[in-house]
Design a protein that fits this description.
Layout: H1 2-13, H2 24-38, E1 42-48, E2 54-64, E3 69-70, H3 83-96, H4 106-109, H5 127-132, H6 142-145, H7 155-161, H8 180-194, H9 198-207
Antiparallel strand pairs: 1-2, 2-3
Helix pairs in contact: 1-2, 3-8, 3-9
């Protein structure tokens, strides 16, 4: 939420109809004051101008407090569920190529996955429902994904390891409920349709064409000097 507030500050300050125009120095000082007030350890920000070119990129604060490593424009950060945007884009690439349709019943694409849907005749679970979190699946539990860094499990094995999780709790398509399992299913559909590991598909079809050379989808648990330390907010203190 704090990051969203800061992004909002930049957007609003660049629009005369919202508030006064601020210089870049004033925006930068405002960001630093918000960080100090809200105990934000570090931020990395890029500002794009109207011609879609980079105006400025840089960091504020620290990516590693203990070792006094400053946050820079090149500091790598874990993006967690922002990765769902890349999965959704990968799926839409397959849709554009006619290899899958949003209206397709996922049980016809991945029958080997143990999906339970008591409304399957009237309301089959579609690719679109997987992407928009309306499948009715429960959310993932910690024991579904906590494992040693060295352990790699194929997506099919992960999905069938906890079969009760892939059960629709209500008629699919009628209610929204955020579930990380939906995008595990999406990743496996991408693998099944494309014939490639979803990491390879994202790398080849999205990251490489966009020249996102500092973004990694493989070996993301590998520690490097450029990776920032994830910090959590202590609400007790």
């Amino acid at each position: 939420m704090k990051i969203i507030q800061i992004i909002g500050l930049i957007l609003f300050s660049s629009t005369g109809s919202i508030c006064q125009n601020l210089s870049f120095t004033e925006v930068r000082d405002s960001i630093q004051s918000i960080m100090l007030k809200d105990d934000i350890p570090g931020l990395s920000i890029a500002i794009i101008n109207k011609s879609d070119s980079l105006y400025w990129a840089g960091g504020f604060g620290f990516g590693d407090i203990e070792n006094a490593k400053p946050m820079t424009a090149h500091t790598t950060m874990y993006i967690a569920s922002v990765s769902k945007n890349f999965l959704a884009m990968a799926m839409m690439i397959l849709v554009e190529r006619g290899q899958v349709r949003l209206s397709d019943n996922i049980s016809s694409i991945i029958p080997e996955v143990n999906i339970k849907n008591m409304w399957s005749d009237a309301s089959p679970i579609t690719v679109e429902m997987v992407l928009e979190h309306t499948t009715g699946f429960d959310d993932i539990r910690f024991n579904n994904f906590i494992a040693p860094d060295s352990e790699y499990l194929p997506l099919l094995e992960i999905l069938n390891k906890y079969p009760n999780a892939l059960e629709s709790r209500w008629q699919p398509g009628t209610l929204f409920s955020y579930s990380n399992l939906n995008y595990t299913v999406a990743g496996y559909i991408i693998e099944k349709v494309s014939g490639r590991r979803f990491e390879d598909f994202v790398q080849d079809e999205i990251l490489n064409p966009l020249k996102m050379s500092e973004t990694r989808v493989r070996d993301f648990t590998q520690k490097t000097d450029s990776i920032s330390i994830p910090y959590v907010y202590n609400f007790d203190t």
